[in-house]
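As agreed, record copied across for absentees:
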Amino acid sequence: MAVWNLGSINEDIVYSVPHIPAAGETLAATDKRHYLGGKGTNMSVALARAGAQVKHIGAVGEDGGWILLKLAEYGVDTRFIGKVAHGTGHAIITVDSQGENAITLWPGANAEVPLDMVQLALSEARTGDWFVTQNETNLQEESARIARDLGLRVAYAAAPFEAAAARAMLPMTDLLVLNAVEAEQLRSATGQGPAELPVEHVIVTLGSKGCDWVTAQDTHHFDAIPVTPVDTTGAGDTFTGYVLAGLDRGMPMAQAIGLATRAAALMVTRHGTSDVIPDLAEVQAFRP
């Protein structure tokens, strides 16, 4: 099977700071680093490193050739990443001494993914494959509808949260992944809690408190693995990628979440984004 990911592609510029700047505050960074990132890219790399066959659908600018090379090096199929007139998207990320972060995004090419690229990609998909998307590109709703019509299962990470996008995606979604803040935003937008949504499986990530797997019948809680975090950037995307990779291999949901929890715990002990997502052997060998 395969996972088809309509996802964002960014250059991440990461600044280490003593604390997250307040409004109007000027703060000197203690370090600056460049990484390959974007929620979509992070998920594709996590999927590939977890052993899944992942096909990325997206766009970069003419300045994005290095990104295609890196993704291919990590095992991601890049045939359906187009080059468009806008420059490649980027994110400015500040990370404080406790590992917490604040992120400013410039969408760039992520908002210009061509519909014909999506159609070409999904023409190769097979019934039972997974399609996953987030809120950092255009064409989420249109692409999910194509995927559902072709018999694919649809996963949706509702971040960054947009009420209109979430409402449009929910009827087509089999697996919804969102954090606690996004879950409350969705409740405010729809009047429905996770168990009331028209989605078979909902996973609410809770940071250091773990996650809840919610169905209409029950809620199962999974504790986080205690570690000392140095950078939480990309941990949620790593978690989502590993969950999908497990499900794509036929794992029961609880087993897939357990694997993803280990991957996310290992991820937060590392500085960076896509470039430092652990592979399956590292996750399995991880002894916190």
